[in-house]
Amino acid sequence: MIPPSIASPSRLNARRCGRLPSFCAAFADQRDILALRAIDWTNGQRDQVERVLGRYPVTSGRCESAAWEILPVGRERDPKAQIWQLVPTEGLYVVPKIEQDVFWFHHFTADVEAHCVDALTGADGTTRSAYLDEHWTETDAISWIAKMERTHEPW
After folding, report:
1. In this predicted model, what pLDDT tens digit does every residue of 58-86 receive, in sequence order?
2. Beta pairing class for 126-127 and 82-88
3. Per-domain residue ranges for the chain?
4. pTM reported for the whole predicted model
5. What are phi and psi of 81, to 5 degrees?
6. Is 27 buried (19+), middle (13-18) or exposed (0-12) by CB count in 10 A?
7. How far is CA 141 from the centre of its chain?
8. CA angle, 138 then 101 then 133, to 5°
């Protein structure tokens, strides 16, 4: 049985089956259910990611550096791990839900096991499907760009 906290329609992309969302959730793709769990880092991997996030908190303005340092650890778990850059499709800024004293022209996050991992999410990450809604405003004005190399030199 799927726990109610996981099976809620707002957190699960259940297949359209023409019935109540809770019924549909019970028959959701197993991959969707697994993606809702936090990343199962080893203790050493979690420590590495938490150290990176400690060096680059939300207020640091160093999300790109954090993402690139998390990536090798993420690839130990998920060879397809990658970096995403979030950019505005309208206006000048991407706006997180947390209070900020500065404006962000873009943001970088590491994608590991279908979870975004950055200072907004912590080491557990947030599923990519829920990431925008949980951490950002104006989600319809944000675009994802896959990054293959650093945009800027690390400071």
Report:
1. 999 999 999 999 999 999 999 999 999 99
2. unpaired
3. 4-36, 43-147
4. 0.75
5. -55, 145
6. exposed
7. 17
8. 25
